[in-house]
Amino acid sequence: MAEARRTDLTGSRIRERRLARGIKQGTLAETVGVSPSYLNLIEHNHRRIGGKLLLELARALKVEPSVLSEGAEAGVSEVLDAAARAQGGVAAETDRIDELAARFPGWTALIAAQEGRARDLEGQIEALRDRLGQDPALAEAMHEVLSSVAAIRSTADILVREADLDAAWRGRFHRNLHEEAERLSARATGLLAQFEAPGADAAAAAPEETVEAMFEAAGHHFPEIEAQGAGAIAMILARAAGLDEPRARAMAERRLRDYAADAARLPMAEFAPAAKAAAYDPAALVERAAGDVALVLRRLAHLPVESGAPDRGLAICDASGALIQRRRLPGFPIPRVAPGCPLWPLYRALTRPGQAEAAVLDMPRGPRFRAWAVAQPVGGAGFGAAPLMHATMLVMPLGADMPGAGLIEAGPGCQSCPRAACAARR
Amino acid sequence: MTEQTKTGTGTILIVEDEGNILEALSFILRRAGWDVRGHGKGESALEEVARVAPDMLVLDVMLPGRSGLEILRDLRADAATADLPVLMLTAKGQAKDREQALAMGADAFLTKPFSNSELLEIVERLSGVDDFRPAAGQGS
After folding, report:
1. Residue A100 forms beta bridges with which residues?
2. Domain total for chain A?
3. B140 to chain A, minimum CA–CA distance in Å?
4. Could you tell me if A150 lies within 8 Å of chain B, comparing CB atoms?
5. Which of A19, A160, A233, B70 has its CA 20 to 30 A from that of A285?
6. What is the pTM (predicted TM-score) of this model?
7. Which of B73, B93, B116 is facing A157, going by the closest CB pair?
8. Cβ separation A150–B92 shorter than 8 A
């Protein structure tokens, strides 16, 4: 039980380490190639981690992996040390922490618990700050409030500092002040309503985020399904934390069933060695999937880390272009909500259903990626009914031995792309 | 600070949809010696820049019709306005907007809420750029 409790707190230790080193959550997430929301789930112990991700986090935080996963005996000392450093102005005797812990274990535990609570509250502030950046309605409400505050501040400043203001101007600015104060009152009420809305809890995640976090935690590979098929899905769902929300659970189950169907058609035991022999080139593997290019792209994304396959990203969108599934890839941002780059072959594939596309994407910050995409019908077909289309794109860093034909100057999506002169920019 | 130092020597266009901010900023900058023009719509801001040919632009990020970032992008893509000094008004908590504006070539930022003295300091600094010339290279 004690063992389980120790590993349950891996996320808390990651958080303590990160804060002690003064690293922002978003920065660490980018360094290890996961989303900030996923790292947030890990840090609040809502996701268990191990393997490659734990190693990468330990490397980024300059600590032995066991210190994160097992806590080591020095856990309390580290929390106290972090607490002392967080309060830079207080001259705590950090060289006597062990003595403190030995003489006053109760007080030590209390300080550590309060430090943990402070970190938790900081985490909530950070999550709310993230929300401000990602939620357009909230950002707009916040902007309106700040605009009113700005108007009041500038107007009040004029009234106080401009001694020679004539009566007409003075009256005008007084009216503006009154008007803006009323507006601020209404806007602040509107802003509070945003926070009080159902699901506005800082720690709450959308079902898509929860399911994506589950797949990221597993490295997009489920050995139990590979071995036992769809029968293993119930066990995986029971094991995964954070799937209490019915929509998230239903979405996770649907995604795992799709995974199981893919695994049944292209068993990993045969596909993994074939993929390696083909140097992970989808074109050389299509025949194995009876021409189903999307299946090959998905299975390449499912390859386990230990297979030695290069890093991979995956994006799947529906016919509207909305991204419905993704596997994140360091250096190749795939937005969750905003549209991706219109130059990605993912979208070009939608205009030519069934035709496989390949391209080299030259990203604005330097790295290049090889991308393969195809749009294919999903679900059953019926006479006279238009098929539902999904486009699938697999992305890999461009290796030195890979041909660079079909170069496209692409980006992460117009919202965050610095290519000002791009003709495809919205 | 009861007396403003008159440092302004040209025309400033303020694109801001909040009428009371626009009025306050216009008053302060006029007192500092600038010829100030105001405009409240994002979608026609580029036409207004072309019409007024300002020496400096104060541009809010969140505007109706068209965002300040989109306007900035178009200004930088046009040779006639590529060097126009642009001061962006962003809101606290919108670090992403500031990063994006910086990448797109904004010359300075002011984060709402700001003080009048901060505004004057930045405007003075921007107008003091070595190669700053009133109406330099402006289309009209």
Report:
1. none
2. 4
3. 22
4. yes
5. A233
6. 0.46
7. B116
8. no
Locate A183 and state its tokens.
């507006």
Q: Is A25 on the interface with B (CB under 8 A)?
A: no
Q: What is the ipTM of this complex?
A: 0.81
Cβ within 8 Å, pair A150-B116: no
> What pLDDT tens digit does each residue of chain A (426 aa) get?
334 444 567 888 788 788 877 788 888 988 888 888 888 888 887 777 777 888 889 889 888 777 787 654 446 677 777 777 766 667 778 778 777 776 777 787 788 777 777 766 766 665 666 556 556 666 777 778 888 899 999 999 899 888 888 899 999 999 999 888 888 887 787 677 666 554 445 445 567 777 888 888 888 999 999 999 999 998 888 877 667 778 888 999 999 999 999 999 999 999 999 999 999 999 999 999 999 999 999 999 999 988 888 889 999 999 988 888 889 887 787 876 667 899 999 999 999 999 999 999 888 766 788 999 999 998 776 777 778 899 999 999 886 455 556 688 888 877 667 777 888 887
CA–CA distances in Å: residue A371 to residues A6, A315, A358, A416: 42, 10, 6, 20
Q: Which of B39, B61, B33 is nearest to B51 (CA)?
A: B39
**Does any domain span residue A288?**
no
Question: Containing domain of residue A85, as a range?
Answer: 2-133
Both A353 and A408 in one domain: the answer is: yes
State how beta strands B56-60 and B86-91 pair: parallel
Which residue, A356, A406, A221, is CA-closest to A300?
A221
- CB A100, CB A80: distance < 8 Å: yes
Residues A215 and A161 in one domain: no
Select the residue from B4, B17, B21, B120 to test the A interface by mutation, using most A Cβ atoms within 10 A: B21
Q: Please say which residue of A78, A106, A133 terminates a domain.
A: A133
